Amino acid sequence: MSNKRDRDSVQNIIIVAFSVCLVCAIVVSAAAVSLRPLQQENAELDRKSNVLQAAGIFQTGVSIDEQFEDIETRVIELATGEFADHIDPDTFDQRRAARDPSQSQELRGREDIAGINRLEDYSLVYLVRDDNDDLEIVILPVRAYGLWSTMYGFLALESDLNTVAGLGFYDHAETPGLGGEIDNRNWIAQWPGRKIYNDDGEVALRVTRGGGVAEEHHVDGLSGATLTSRGVDNMIEFWMGERGFKPFLENLRGEES
């Protein structure tokens, strides 16, 4: 009888419960560690897939890694627009850099029109060249805050570094059926052929509802999603401007001419 009371004691129950929790924690931790390489590999494949899709060169039924062999991945310094060859693009984590005060700058007021809070010092860029090594497409990582979330995407430009080749978003939490329509193929189909800059070199492409903007510089905003549309509009203004990729595009234009 005494042994049964000992087994049913509060102390014994706590020990058993703790032991079960400890075993479960060890199993979960071991699973997380063992699956991490696979998760990282899947995340990398997803990134590559989104780059290819934004550029309009994704091929179904063909290995993503095989397709990505034709893409040159580089790191640039945003402030100067120059290539940063001392940074390995295969290991550079741009999102982490944007959160790290030692690798980014705080943005305040009007300079943070995109609502991203911090701007990383360096950025990845992706270059597609033809068989003669001439530039065909440039793919740029872009982001901005919409209504509920930061919208992460890729903007592709043609060889003139002004004409949009494509746009795609891969991470956001905008309202399904409203702001979430930034994923809608019909809306995305408006972008190719639009021009970023006007003849004075100013960012002219706008995302608005209604007229007032030349067609080559206009993308129709999403119906019922004013703040999300404004976020995309701000994204273009920021990332194509002086604090974004404009210095890089100007340098690249000089190299290619």
Give a quick rundown of the structure.
With 257 residues, this protein is α+β, with helices and mostly antiparallel strands. The protein has helices at residues 2-7, 10-55, 64-68, 94-99, 185-188, 226-239, 246-256; strands at residues 71-77, 82-83, 104-106, 118-120, 122-129, 135-145, 150-158, 164-171, 206-208, 218-220.
Elements, N to C (H/E):
HHHEEHEEEEEEHEEHH
Placed side by side, the strands forming the largest sheet appear as 2-1-5-6-7-8
Radius of gyration: 24 Å
Beta-strand residue fraction? 15-25%
Number of strands: 10
Task: Provide key terms for this protein.
alpha+beta; 257 residues; 7 helices; two-stranded antiparallel sheet; 6-stranded antiparallel sheet; 36% helix; single chain
Structure report:
This protein is an alpha+beta fold. It has helices at residues 2-7, 10-55, 64-68, 94-99, 185-188, 226-239, 246-256; strands at 71-77, 82-83, 104-106, 118-120, 122-129, 135-145, 150-158, 164-171, 206-208, 218-220. Strand 6 (135-145) and strand 7 (150-158) form a beta hairpin. The N and C termini lie far apart (93 Å).
What order do the helices and strands come in, and which of them pair?
Elements: H1 2-7, H2 10-55, H3 64-68, E1 71-77, E2 82-83, H4 94-99, E3 104-106, E4 118-120, E5 122-129, E6 135-145, E7 150-158, E8 164-171, H5 185-188, E9 206-208, E10 218-220, H6 226-239, H7 246-256
Parallel strand pairs: 9-10
Antiparallel strand pairs: 1-2, 1-5, 3-4, 5-6, 6-7, 7-8
